[in-house]
Automatic annotation (TrEMBL):
A Gene Ontology BP annotation from the UniProt entry: mRNA splicing, via spliceosome
Single GO cellular component term: post-mRNA release spliceosomal complex
Entry's family note: Belongs to the SYF2 family.
Keyword presence, Nucleus: yes
Name this protein carries in UniProt: Pre-mRNA-splicing factor SYF2
Annotated region (Disordered), positions in chain: 1-39
Entry keyword set: mRNA processing, mRNA splicing, Nucleus, Spliceosome
Pfam family, one: SYF2
Organism in which the protein naturally occurs: Cepphus grylle
Assembly mode: May be part of a spliceosome complex.
Location(s), subcellular: Nucleus
């Protein structure tokens, strides 16, 4: 029954209302801070991804440019580049040896391993190295050496001839050789077999000329066909108009 003063009731109501608004503001501020932090983290990740994408794009562009340069280079550029680098290293090594007063060839030999030396020696001792064609004299000499290596001397027959002829078996500039030596039948047969083998091998390597079935037949035999080809090769450009007139029937 005792009445509460009006101003006290208003103060208490205002106090309660004030405390309730503070409780509501604190959670909303924390949520806003968490959202801002999350947004900042997402922006940071986005910036990192953007930087990585730009870096990848730059590297990709560099690779494309380098590949385009490599494609435009000659086919043997890598070999030439390696050769030039090796020559530069050799020149630098020679300068270093000259500055120290050493012989470059001796220093180079000291740096060669035993395996490399053995491999080079085996390569030097290879039988019948094919050096390619340089001139006809060198090709003839190589052919002669190859044929002489195939000859297997008959030592028994040599000893018999040595006993029979003595010093005459070794002729000098004053010796008369014509008609003094008669080859054996076995030797002649061996020479004939060797010549036939050479002819057979040469025929295998002959270049086969293509035959054109649609070409005009203007020859009577194989020899005449070869002659016509030679004449066409040398005089074809001068006789082309005459042939055309003869074919059309308009020759004067």
């Amino acid at each position: 029954g005792v009445g509460v003063p009006r101003h006290r009731a208003v103060a208490e109501r205002g106090l309660f209302q004030g405390s309730g608004s503070e409780d509501e503001v604190r959670p909303s501020t924390a949520a806003a801070a968490a959202a801002a932090q999350k947004r900042e983290e997402r922006l940071r990740k986005f910036r990192e991804l953007h930087m990585k994408r730009n870096e990848a794009r730059k590297l990709n562009h560099q690779e494309v440019v380098e590949e385009d340069k490599r494609l435009k280079l000659p086919a043997n550029w890598e070999a030439k580049k390696a050769r030039l680098e090796w020559e530069l290293k050799v020149e630098e090594k020679k300068k270093e040896c000259a500055a120290r007063g050493e012989d470059y060839e001796r220093v180079k030999l000291l740096e060669i391993s035993a395996e490399d030396a053995e491999r080079w020696e085996r390569r030097k001792k290879r039988k019948n190295p094919d050096l390619g064609f340089s001139d006809y004299a060198a090709a003839q000499l190589r052919k002669y050496q190859r044929l002489t290596r195939q000859i297997k001397p008959d030592l028994e027959q040599y000893e018999k001839l040595k006993e029979q002829y003595g010093e005459a078996l070794y002729p000098t500039s004053d010796s008369l050789l014509h008609g003094t030596h008669v080859p054996s039948k076995e030797g002649v047969d061996r020479m004939v077999a060797d010549l036939e083998k050479q002819i057979e091998k040469r025929e295998k390597y002959s270049r086969r000329r293509p035959y054109n079935d649609d070409a005009d037949i203007d020859y009577i035999n194989e020899r005449n066909a070869k002659f016509n080809k030679k004449a066409e090769r040398f005089y074809g450009k001068y006789t082309a108009e005459i042939k055309q007139n003869l074919e059309r029937g308009t020759a004067v």
